[in-house]
Amino acid sequence: xxxxxxAELLVSALENEGVEQIFGVPGxxxxxxxxxxxxxxxxxxxxxxxxxxxxxxxxxxxxxxGAGVCLTTLGPGALNLTTGAAYALLGAMPMVMLTGxxxxxxxxxxxxxxxxxVSAMTPLTKMAHQIxxxxxxxxxxxxxxxxxxxxxxxxxxxxxxxxxxxxTAPAIPLVAPHTIEQPVAPPSALDRAAELILExxxxxxxxxxxxxRPHLAEPLSDFVNRVQxxxxxxxxxxxxxxxxxxxxxxxxxxxxxxxxxxxxxRADLIIAIGHDTVEKPPFLMGAGGPKVLxxxxxxxxxxxxxxxxxELIGDVGPTLALLAxxxxxxxQNAGALLPLRADILAQIAERAEERRYPLTPQRxxxxxxxxxxxxxIVCLDxxxxxxxxxxxxxxxxxxxxxxxxxLATMGAGxxxxxxxxxxxxxxxxLAVCGDGGFMMNSQELETAARLRxxxxxxxxxxxxxxxxRWKQAADGFPDFGMSFGNPDFVLYAKAYGVKxxxxxxxxxxxxxxxxxxxxxxxxxxxxxxxxxxxxRVLIDELRTYAATSTDRK
Length: 553
Ligand SMILES: Cc1ncc(C[n+]2csc(CCOP(=O)(O)OP(=O)(O)O)c2C)c(N)n1
Ligand SMILES: [Mg+2]
What we know:
The protein has 22 helices and 18 strands. The protein has helices at residues 6-16, 31-38, 50-64, 75-79, 82-91, 117-121, 137-149, 162-166, 187-199, 217-227, 261-266, 316-327, 341-349, 361-371, 384-392, 413-423, 435-440, 444-450, 466-474, 489-495, 509-519, 532-552, and strands at 21-24, 43-46, 68-72, 95-101, 127-130, 155-161, 203-207, 231-233, 248-251, 269-273, 291-296, 310-313, 377-380, 401-402, 429-434, 455-461, 499-502, 522-528. The strands form 3 sheets. A 6-stranded parallel sheet has the order 2-1-3-4-6-5, sandwiched between helices. Helix 14 (361-371) runs parallel beside helix 21. It starts with 5 loop residues before the first helix and ends with a helix. Magnesium ion (MG) is lined by residues 383, 434-436, 462, 464-466.
């Protein structure tokens, strides 16, 4: 084996971490790493822009808990990772980003393409570090993965200058990873939390973003089923407990005044499990509202709209099991808010089967649910439909509705779906994108086709930045600056050598999706959407409901 150069040592350290694939774009400064990858067990997946490489790596981290890896050259390539870094940082997704750099020991090309990438990455990562000697590679790579993967997970950046990549490395052993168990909450905190819950007359569980960590699905479901307290979730906490369970009260896609807030406003205690305030607030904490018990791996961040009254900090799964032991049969009021459930869910389900063309968002969500099996994965880009999916789509299995309510960037939907399709080739995977967000990274259709993925992409066409048009109207501004034209998506698909079809009637969406999945490969389905429902339901109807609901309190 020895002697290895810096690039080869880096790649063997990545193999040592169990890395199976790396997403990225080549450049002169990472050629040695690419050569080392060619000779390794790791697969190099070339993408058509660096941003989607980061989105894919981050989604690998999100779905598996193991850091995904992306690779770029220096300067322009590295800077194209910044949005992906922010996506992983806010979304708590473990990722390791590797970038090249000109030599540090001599600079034969002076400042050509040189920018201070480590400084640019510092505020966007948990750690950003330049490797200055091959001898440090085994420990720094282990450290990078440890930091990326441990709570709160996120991105790490390592820069490998080309001269260090080429330098002969000393024979330094790699550092073997090992399992680390997190501590559980101490008995005093568990007693206090149990007391709060037992005193509550109308308790409600909230599942936040951290509840979707891949290993938490079982312990969370156990906890909710043992204590029988009804629950709602934030957008990113969706699916953490089977949504079909009789305790599901809804998803807080808006911060206030939605139907689910009937339960939230009446609760006197919210047990917020894994809430991460990177999400748009699921409710606005304030004087006179419910008390909040924060349960998490880390203490709560204190915000104007979130300042818990008590905290239970530790490994969430085992901590919740200990909490449930303490509650046992003593819990009298667990189901106090359950009578509200039927009404909330009925309001949400309204108009789900309406035959209107262009299609209503409610009908789109309904029809997608029809064609997706329980374990099928829907990956959203960012646009108006995200609110409708978060609110109306019911999940039975953890991490089957992937959305970004943290950075909320456009352009990540297709990449996240590609990663899901790579990880779970036997499950149906659907990307849902607006016509704006899809076109931000649509070039990755070529990557998806090259990878021979099975993937359906639903494009919702309103020829506009629909979500901002909705906000603009809601704020009383005239309609301006929101519209654009589109390519013919069926022809566009064809140009990439993938299939495409158009939905042309109210009843056409479900069969089009069904046929697309049945046909296999990549299939683009474009459907026109009628967004007049945005104002009708999410503004007018909810305003009327809020005005009358004070009487019902
Ligand atoms: C990269 C990025 N740019 C701008 C925004 C602001 N933004 C949020 S939603 C949205 C409109 C999305 O349009 P589209 O993808 O067509 O979805 P629609 O709302 O029309 O369904 C915009 C511009 C954003 N979130 N991310
Ligand atoms: Mg649009």
